[in-house]
Amino acid sequence: MDIYVGHTKARWCLHSDLLSYHTTFFQTEKQEHSKIELLDEYPEAFELLVKWLYQGKLENVSDMPIDRKWDYADACQKLYTLCDKINLPQLKNMAIDQFRRGCNEAGLVPGPEEIKSIYDTTPPNSPLRKLISQIAARQIMDPESQCDAASYRMCFEGSADFAIDVVAAIRIGSGLKLFDDPTEEGHRCCYHEHGAGPPCKVG
Length: 203
Known about the structure:
Strand 1 and strand 2 form a beta hairpin. It contains 9 helices and 3 strands. By secondary structure, it is mainly alpha-helical. The protein is elongated. The model has no long low-confidence stretch (mean pLDDT 92). A 3-stranded mixed sheet has the order 2-1-3.
């Protein structure tokens, strides 16, 4: 069975019986179309799928040198969305585990553009969305992070779900601690328009 992947239409020729054993997606596609094209997917993710089909496992990111960890983690994240499309839950779980571990060991996380792409290609209640929104929430709340809420403007503007998920993640991550009441007396100059200086006597 010939399968074409990505904008470059990278070609794989795979055994139909092997594909059908794991998922009905490809057989259904073959019946409905003259050729199978996954042009919105990534060749590096499909390559990991092929290795798993023939070897029954994914490489462990912990065994890789530091300069390969992030690229592999990124490929596993793309593998996750591919598995979501072709309905391979077992491999999807393996992929997200490697993605999490790779992010942790590389000390890197997806940026706003990558997060927007993830939200554009995953359904509501996706475990990957849950993970990504928690990563973004932690970046926003981390005083040592260079990312603040404004860094994710494109994500907030592009997806109301992302905004809701991040607020929920911050709420849970803060231990449901109640903020100070902004309507109480004191600090009223925080809500006034004037220059810095002694507290004003308005009101």
